[in-house]
Design goal:
The protein is an alpha/beta fold. It has 6 helices and 7 strands, in the order βββαβαβαβαβαα. Strands 4-3-5-6-7 form a 5-stranded parallel β-sheet, with helices on both faces. α4 links the parallel β6 (about 85-90) and β7 (about 110). α2 (about 40-50) packs parallel to α3 and α5 (about 115-160) packs antiparallel against α6. The radius of gyration is 23 Å and the shape is elongated.
Length: about 180
């Protein structure tokens, strides 16, 4: 899978208050079919989610002001973003309570730093592939609806013509179905 649908690349939202961590994440994702979009706060992440669609969110759990858990709660409350997978990343100890809090906030995974970059790449790859396949299915469903609409219009136009009715009416039906 290329990570692109109709020329639109899959994107990963990277959220961390430390610029060096964002640079490291961008380096880890290099070469994957995903465009990383890095922001340095939960507020900036929420704003970015109003602009773009994302295949996956890599979210630092511990940030000043709005932490990752609060950010995730806002993400999951929005209809448009509630299904975007969130992978929490944290430098905190392997505290089971923090991991549970992350899952409760809607995370699909919770990785403690330092983590294996190849594991993160594999996880991001899976979500990019799922995003791509979902977009393909949506495009196929749209095409099927258009096909059904056109087929119905052709059937209606043929019925009008066979009945000897106004051919202009049949043409109007066909043109309106074309959109």
């Amino acid at each position: 899978m290329s990570g692109r649908i109709d020329g639109v690349p899959a994107k990963a939202l990277l959220v961390d208050d430390r610029r060096d961590n964002l640079i490291a994440l961008e380096a880890i994702l290099q070469g994957l079919p995903v465009v990383p979009v890095a922001v340095e706060s939960g507020e900036a992440a929420l704003k970015q989610l109003l602009i773009d669609d994302f295949a996956v969110i890599l979210l630092d759990a511990q940030m000043p002001e709005m932490d990752g858990f609060e950010t995730a709660a806002h993400i999951k409350q929005r209809e448009r973003t509630r299904h975007v997978p969130i992978i929490f990343l944290t430098a905190a100890d392997r505290d089971a309570q923090l991991a549970l809090r992350g899952y409760a906030a809607g995370a699909v995974d919770y990785l403690t730093k330092p983590f294996d970059p190849w594991v993160l790449r594999a996880k991001v790859s899976v979500f990019v592939e799922l995003w791509t396949k979902t977009r393909l299915l949506e495009a196929q469903a749209d095409a099927a609806r258009q096909f059904k609409s056109l087929t119905t219009a052709v059937d209606d136009a043929v019925t009008i013509l066979r009945a000897g009715e106004d051919p202009d009416r049949a043409l109007e039906i066909l043109e309106s179905a074309r959109g």
